[in-house]
User: What shape does this take?
Amino acid sequence: MTAPQGPADLVIFGCTALVHDEREQVSFRPDCAVVVREGVIDALVPTAEAAGLDARERIDAGGQVALPGFINCHTHAPMVALRGIAEDVPVEEWFDDWIWPIESQLTEREVELGARLACAEMIRAGVTCFADHYFAMDAVAAVVEETGLRAHLGWAYFSSQGPEGRERSLDFALRQQGAANGRITTTLAPHAPYTVTAEDLAATAELAREHGLPVHLHAAENHAQTDNSLKEYGCTPIELLERAGLLDTGVLIAHATGLVERDLDVLARAGGPVAVASSPRGYLKFGWDTTPVRALAARGIPVGLATDGAASNNTLDVWEAMTLTALTQKHATGDPRWLTARQALQHATLQSAQALGLGERIGSLAPGRRADLVLVDLSGPHTQPVHDLAATLVHSARSSDVTTTIVDGQVLMRERKLLTVDVSETVAELTERLPRLVDRSHGQRIQTYGQRIQTYGHGES
Assistant: This one.
């Protein structure tokens, strides 16, 4: 470690640190200290070496594990306001009878309240960065700045909005890029190939190339969507993206449980970086297949972990998504050797960062990376004894074992106490607004599942 200029901002000492080697494989470094300066990891050194180091703040993490902060690669944060609103129904009923009618009355204030509650939930679950795809995204960006999280944000649009929807998505992406002291990155956010026309997808690809922006959208969410696309267009949703030129830009595809074999070859030959976000809990609820993580990995396509929105998933717990990914992949492949616990940890950290195009900034504990990390206490009876630390983290630990969450060197939660969010005040106002929000007697909806062009209505105040 080079001689420091002045005291460190933060030293976390006495922990076991999860690190990645040059092949991106996970290992653990015991009795480690993490030194942070100006929001960046300056060094990982033995605790004894850091004992005499001058620091403005020190955290004794003895007996705890330091992990790179978890990354939620696809969610709709404000939808925590609709948690549990439509249970045990197929996806078309979920959209048409519940979600899209309610969202037609959604206001910017409710987006703000939902986003704030979601950020509190994610901080407590050890999430330090999330990719959000929703409406009224300036409100979400403001909450990200306020709460201290990192976020990759896109203003979603449908073709039913006309060109204004696409223009709004672009305007937001350009205005908010690099906001919150660089913690906000942005993306264009068409909803999906079944709600956005081929012309709009192609126009989005042009905008992405012109402005150097990535694209975040849903595609091949399930096999029914793929079957419908084949009947209507003679090609899959993934092939529609290729025809539109989107696969020559940077694209994050949410879900992709409906991929067929030929889609894998299309994704493998894409001209731009392509990644997939997988949220297995929601697939189990809707009775879908799971994302073919092994087949994608064989073609070099990163898969990041996600929760989707709490309206379908009920939780923003990426820790649970990590565990379920490991289990559902074993079941889907019939191979108990895939995914291993270490592979699951790699998915939750560095591979999820790579899926968002942020792999050079976050996702690992290494000098030069942003200081986004969490501390995990494994002293509880459900995590003892520890024979295999990776297995304990993936299959025994819970998000509630996270004691401390840090983003850019700022402590957002210490010993389970949130420092940047007032949950009770947020819940009180949101609860007061819910009766109006969930009233569907108006008969409006923002879209119809499976139909592209419908009248778009959206609350304004």
Residues 108-124 form the longest helix (17 residues).
